[in-house]
Structure formats: structure tokens, C-alpha cells
## 1
Amino acid sequence: MSTRDYGVSRFFVRPRVTLLALLLASLSLVTISYKSQGSGIAAVFQKSLKSITDPIRSTANSVIHPVEDVFSGAFGYSSLKRRNAVLKNEIATMKNQEALSSKLESEVQALTALANIPFAQGLKSISAVVDNYSPSNTQMTVNIDRGSSQGVRVGEPVVAALGLVGRVVSVTGSSSTVLLISDPSSYVGVSLGSSNQVGMAVGEGSFQTIKVELVNPGTSLYKGEPVYTSGLQGGVYPPNVPFGKVSKFSSNPGSLQEQVSLTPMVDLSSLQFVKVLQWLPGGAG
Amino acid sequence: MRMRIVRSALLIVTVIVFQHSILDSVQFFGVHLDLPLLLVICAGFSEGREAGAVIGFVVGLLTDGFLLTPFGLSALVYSLVGYIAGQTEKGSFIGPWTINAALASLLSAVGELGYEIASRLLGFGQLLHIHLIKVVLVVAISNAVLSVFMVPLAKWAFASRELTSRPPVIRR
């Protein structure tokens, strides 16, 4: 009996009693928490504890965030690399979408401008898309996606929103070739805005510069002066279609003509949409 | 005595905050480290089974504050682990660091398994899933390594210096 008493008393030494008390307390808390399902005393205690520790955590987070980054970078390198690749891919996709969106926007603007050209009013026209530039280095032409089946004929002038582009030089059933005003074989009768002085614009093989011949010496000119088609020259082009702006002019002593260079109104290097004016040489539209 | 409580509270809060701020985002093979469990084990090493159980209970309660499992579950498991840790070492640092590390590793595995079993009994988690093996292994190994630092820290925080630093009384 005494031995049994000794065993029981040995079992109930203080550490074991403490442990039992703590286990009972833990189990009580678990039971209360389990039964209250996120409410009750346990939940209140949990929330209070969080409200006390959260400021400490957030302060610690803000202080040691750079350290955390170092840890993440050091130990999660492969994961970071993967995420980086995914993010790069997403950025590229977004950039593509943005580029596409801005391209569409510019196309809409170009089409709107083309639909509302202020010149060549009263002339019928056929809208077309430029689908190809000439692969040749000696010939400055573009192909458009409209041909004889849509009513395009050889010799018809072609304009963009800002001015003259060229004229149709060959036609198939569904496409046409347009000789650009910058081609060296292109001649266009022009008139200089302020003086009504006429001349002949000849392409120089460059998208940027077209020279004007047969301008009388001493003609009053200024840089940026607008130049229009004259409608002369047998009426190859209708009159008053914007052609270009004076970019350079000079007069050599003894020369029989003024040296004049123009910049085309239309950026011929990036044509998208054009209109074929149903106008034939001589004005037989 | 008061300084001991301050030191203990400081270490416990620091470990909990460290666990839930930095270590929350650090994973090894998809497993978080478990510093609070290591702290409880080292407290048991330092102060014996009774103190180990009490510190385990406190640390467990604080840990439960951040978890969705029933409140008190960590306290239950940590109390037991702290008690066992104190039982093992008899409340003193008798072994070299290798033995401490081995024991910390073993008790960490016991703690993680115990927590899984307890939460499974309460309807949480899935017992003996493949991730559990990873959890046990990673926590056991990492706690073995970290015990080299945590054992001296626990000794500094929990040890009753008032008693140990008293000069021996010489009687004739």
C-alpha cells in the first residue's frame, strides 16, 4: 500500500502536475475554439492577440523588409527566375497589345483624315490600301489593293489625306501600281502658293526632296511655302491638290531659273491608305 | 527574476515576430522553418521539463494567434515537446553542440508529427501525405543547424542566473 502511495506521489511531482494542467488548459481552449467555430472567447482572445502583435509585425516588416528581400533572393532564386520570366512574357504581351492599339488608333485617324480630304471635292474616288512598296531601288512605286474590277484606270491620280501621292501607271484586275511623285520619271505641274508662279516638279529618287524646274528667277518665295498642283500640263492632275512645301530655294546669277526644292506634303515612305481620284488626263473624270 | 522574465518575453516575442515576418516568405523545398518549435525545445534543454512545458504553452498560444487551426492546438503540442525536451536533458546543457543538434532535430520531427496528428484528429489536414515527410525532414534538419545559435540564446534568456551565479557557500 505504502509502495503504491509512493508511486502515486512520485507521479504527481510538480512538473507533471504543471504539464497536466497545461495540457488540460490547451485541450479546453481547443474544445472552446472548436465549438465556437470562429466566435466566442477563443476568437476574442485570438483577435486581441493579433491586434497586439500586428503593429509589432508590421513595424518589423517595414524595418526588415530589405533583409526579407535578400533571403527571398538568395533562397528562392529559381522561383524568382521563373516568375521573372513569366512577368517578362506578360510585359511583352502587354507591349504588343499597346502597340497594336496605338497602330489601330493611327489607322483610324488616317482613314478619318482620308475620308475628309478638303481638296478634289466633287471627284469620285476609290479608297485603297497600300500593300507593297517596290522592291526596286530605281523605281519608286507602290502597289494598292484596288484594280480594274473596282474601277481603277491607268493615269488616275492618287492622293493621301495630306496631298498628292502619284498616279496609277499599271492596273490588273485586283491591284494597281502607283508611280510616286518622288520617282525621277514623275513630272507634275505645280503652282507656288503666293505668287501663282508655275513650275514642273520632278522627282529625285528620294522620299524627302523633289526639285521644281522652270521657276522664273526672282520669284518671291519663302521657306515652307505651300505648293499645289497647277492643273496645267494637259490636266494630268486636277488643280489645287496639295503637293509639297518649299524647303530650299536659291538663285544663281545668270541662271535662267530659280533653284527650288520641295518636301512632299505626304510622307511617302509610310503610306497606308490612299484614294484613287477618278480623274483622267484632260479632266475626263 | 524580473530581468529573467523580461529577457524571456523579449526572446519569445522576437522569435514569433521573426517567424511571422521574415520566415513567412522564406521556404526551403516549399517548407517554412519553425523557429518557435526550436525555441521551445531549447527552453526545455535550458530549464527542464516544467519550464519547458510552460514556455511551450506560452509560445504555442502566441503561435495559435496566427493560425486558422483551433486555438490551443499549438499550445498543446508545444507544451508536450517542451516537457520532453526538459526530460531529455534534465534541465542542463550537458552535451556538446552535436548532441544538442541531434536532439533538437529529433524533437522537431516529433513536434511536427505531433502537430499533424493532433490537427488530423480534429479534422484538419491530411495525415501522412507526401508533403508531411518534406516538412518533417526540412524542419528537423534546419532546427538541428539553428540549435547551435538558439541554445545559447535560450540559455541567456531563460536561465535563472540569480541562482547559478551565487558563489558557493563554504561550510566548515
## 2
Amino acid sequence: MTADKTPIIIAKDVHKWFGDFHALRGVSMEVKQGEVIVIFGPSGSGKSTFIRTINHLEEHQQGDIVVDGIELSHDVRNIEKIREETGMVFQQFNLFPHLTVLQNISLAPIWVKKWDKPRAEAKAMELLKRVGIPEQANKYPGQLSGGQQQRVAIARALAMEPKIMLFDEPTSALDPEMIKEVLDAMIELAKTGMTMLVVTHEMGFARAVADRMFFFDKGEIVESGTPDEIFKAPKEARTKLFLSQILHH
Amino acid sequence: MTANTTVKPPLAERPTLLGWLRKNLFNSWGNAILTVAAGWLTFVTLRGLLTWVFTEADWTVIQTNLRLILLGQYPIAEVWRIWVSMLLLAFLIGNSLSIWGKGKTSTRFTVGLMGLLFALAFVVSGPSRTWLLAMGAVLGAGWWLARGAGKAMRNVVGIGWVVWPPIFILLLRGFTPDEGFLPLVGTNLWGGLMLTFMLTIVGIVFSFPIGVLLALGRQSDLRIVRWFCITFIEVVRGVPLITILFMAQLMLPLFLPSGLTIDRVLRAMVGITLFSAAYLAENVRGGLQAIPKGQYEAAYALGLSNPLSMGLIILPQALRLIIPILVGQFIALFKDTALVAIVGLFDLVGIARTVLAQPAFLGTHREVYAFISLLYWVFSYAMSYVSIRLEDSLGVGKR
């Protein structure tokens, strides 16, 4: 699926401290355009922190991050530019409760991309159809189920026509029966060739669409490989232990 | 959006008067005794009050001085301007009641207000009677016209509320120096309920944006801005309003170059506005803190700049949360304007004192203060009602 192009995300020796806590200890990763990356690992392993450094929701203190040729620095313009090109989906959805679904999705295209309202709303409706809930357009987020809210959040991120999508545990706050509808939307997105970084423990999703998987522990990448390599022949003991815990419970 | 289907209780439980009495007031010996005692107390108090209101009190003092109490010494020839503003206001209120009011309460409230205006019309005489009757009629008409109005009408009425205060002030003040269509009326002639209104409106309209800016400035990354805001807020909050008013009236002229004078009413307005802004800033800060971090992150992740995130995502939610607190503060502001009487302005309380000094009405304290208290209460309650309706229509606490 991946062509041999220059990587769209380059992270080199990224370090991050929260006070004394060393959250990221030299993480390096290169992601090519169109790749689907699954990042997994125990809680507190730094996996969420890492993908949040890519759009600068967390500031890394050492190392380099280059997104689509833009160096992530303190320059606010660079940060906003990278954020325009990366969409993000959160564990807690983070929809804007005072706006309707349609307004949630069309807000950023109107204000950041300066689209006129009809165009932004047409795009929003198209995306809502894609995630399967066009009939909810004029409701408020509080009136939707968790699964529906997360699908709106995906549509909201896609409305900015990003080159990269970051998913931070998108199904962890959902009831079991709603996980599938969100994963289906993500699988459909992966098949369109979107570059995706997904922090998740949904191994079924990883098996179905991941190109590569990264196992994080204690702020480091312990092991990486294709889903086949990781599931059938994990090299590291920590990976084996963790997989056995999440696959056989 | 809100389901307001009132579910009737099953037949057996449907309250009859007697049943209700037995259940709520006489369900045990102790309660029966309490009920009788409380009833007796209420009767004694109310009998005293009602006897006083209807037989002993001499309301001629109000009747004679009504214009003074409401308008101060505003020139009679120009009073029509106030009435025109009031007609506009009545129309807006009528519109708003039928758009945002709630079913029966809205009707009751409208009819009540009209009743009050018509009742007032009977108390007064001369052209005021006509104007008051017209106000009642316009209020009713506004209510009737806006029934079943769509979204466009709502926006028009919303804009009307924003445009009304400047129109009111401009009309009252006038703009042509001596002669002409609207001659200037000096603020030294402003007084009574009108002045109280004016101080309140200016206080609310200006302290709101200043307060929001102060709250944002207090969280700013720019150190000088932050320190300025913190200093301003803490200094102003640490001083009673009355001392600020004294400062504005007595100290300010000392610092100004001689010959340059600032209007006294304007000085009071500035004092009230700054005082209110400091409190408002802290309330807004409370609202800002109640917004989850995830809302900021979602806004930033979409590429929204800091000002856009604040203006589109954070502030609308924060302000919605603190509507009850804001209205509480505005009601307090309305009542606090009474303090300007102490520094020599003739607002409601100031006018009341001049009325009491009239030789013909010595010793009518009770009538005069009862009447202005009633005025304060009517408008405070109206603001409180508006707040509740506003919360309802914005869905505070529902989503």
C-alpha cells in the first residue's frame, strides 16, 4: 500500500518531561504518506503524549519533529499550519456542546480555510453521509450517543481536508456496542489512503488495516513491525506479556 | 427541544382543596398548630400593612410628584422623547415576551404588565395618561404581533435590544446645541427613575465588554497585561463602591486642569462601570475555568488561532454558564446605583429625599420609600425573570 516516498512525518529522538517525569525518552519514527500506524502499550507509556506532540498539543523539549516538510518549532505560524494539515480525534470526543453537529463540522473550514458557508455545510453533509449519520445534522452533541458523537468528531477533523489523521484512543470511552460503528468508519477511512496514527488497543482494527505497529513502554518504542510480525512472532518479552494480557482476558 | 408535557397525576391522587389542606397543612397535631399560628401571624401583619396602604397612607405625595420621581427635572417640553423611547421599549418587551416567554406565564406576565401600565394611567393625569395607555397598548400589540414568529423575527428583536440603549441615551440627551430638532438637555436635569435606568444601562453595556477583556487579560501570557488586569481587579474589588463614587465626584476635579470639567453624571457612570467590570471579570474567569481542557485542545487541533478559539468556542460556553451570576450582578448594580444619591445626584433615592423636603409633604417617608421600593422590586424581578427565560432558551444545564 505504501509507496517509497519521503516520509510525511519524521520524529527524531523526541524527549518530553512532565516536571521530573520523563514521559518520552528518545522516540524516533518515520511515517510515509498513506501508512496506517497503530501505537499500543500500557497506560502511562507515552503513546498519547507522543501523538499529541505531532500537532503540538504537547510541546517536546528535545529532538526534531517535521510534518509534511514543516519543522515544528515555537513559531506559532508553523504550529497553526501543521494543525491545519492534521486532524485529531480524541478519547472524550471533545465536540463543541453549544453548536449543532453541522456547525461543529463546518466551523473550522469557515473560519480557518475561509470557505463560504454553503460550501462548508455541503462538505459537512457529505462527511456526515460518509460516517453514516446525515440525519443528525441539526442536533446538538448532547443529544447523540457516544458512538455517534465520535463519528461526528471524525467528520469534524476530516472537514479540514487533512493529510494526516491522529486518533487518541478513539474507542476507549465508548460502550462495547458502539465501538464497531466507530472502527468501521476508521477502516473505511484507512482504505481511502489517509495517513493515520492510531493509539488503540483494538487489535482487530490493527490486524485489518495497520501497515505497521509500534509497542510503547515507559516512554520508549520497545518493538515495531507489521501486524503479522507483532502478533505471530513478537521479539521482546514485554511485548509478548502485554499482548497476552490484552488478547486473552 | 424541551419536552414540557405536564403529566397529570392519577385520578385518585388529583388534589382537591380539602385534600390538599389535610395533606400539607393539617397532617399532624404539630403541623396543625403551626399552620394556625402562621396563619394568624400572616393575618396580623397583612392587616396592618393593608390597612395602612388603603386607609392611612396619603398617596397624594406620589400623585403630585410622580413626574419628578420618574423623570427628575427633565424639561416638560422635551418629555415626549422619553415617552417615545418608552414606547419603543414597550414594543421590544412585548415582542420578547411572546418570543421567549413560556406559554401561560408569558401571557400572564404580559397582561400583568399591561394592567400595571393601565392602572398607573388612572393614577396620573394629563398627557402622561395618554402615553401610559399607549405604552400598554404598544406592549400588547408587540406581544400579539410576535406570536409564532420565526427565527428572522428573533434576530430582529435581538438587534433591537442592542440598538435601543444608544437610541435612548441619544434621544434623551439630544444633539443640537441650542435650538433645532433635539436640543441638548444637560445631565444636571436628569433625575428620578430615568437617571437610575440610565446609570444601570450604561453600567451594564460598558462593564460587560470591559469585564470580559479584564478576565482574558488576567490569563494572558503577556506579563504586563496580566499584572495590569490583576492590579485593577484587586484594587477596585477591595474598595466600596461609595468610596469610588466619592473619588470620582470630589477627588477627580483636583487632578484635572482647571477649566476642564467632566459631567457629574458621566463621572458616576464611569465609577459604576469600572466597579462592576472588576466583579464581572472575576465571574467570567470562573466561567472560563469551568470549560474543560478538551475544548481548547479540540479548537487548537482544528487549526483555530488563540483569539478564534476564545471567541468561537470558549467564551460562548463560559458566558452561557454564568448567566445567572451575571444577571445577579446586574440586579445588584441596578440597586447599587442608589448610592449616587449620597454624592448628590438625583436618582430615585435622591429624588425621594427632595420630595420629602417639600413643606407640603413632611413626614411622608413611609409612602415615598414604599413607592420607590416597589419600583426597584418591579424592575429587579423583571430582570430575574428575563434571566430564567434566557437560560431556558439557551439550554443552560441541558447540554
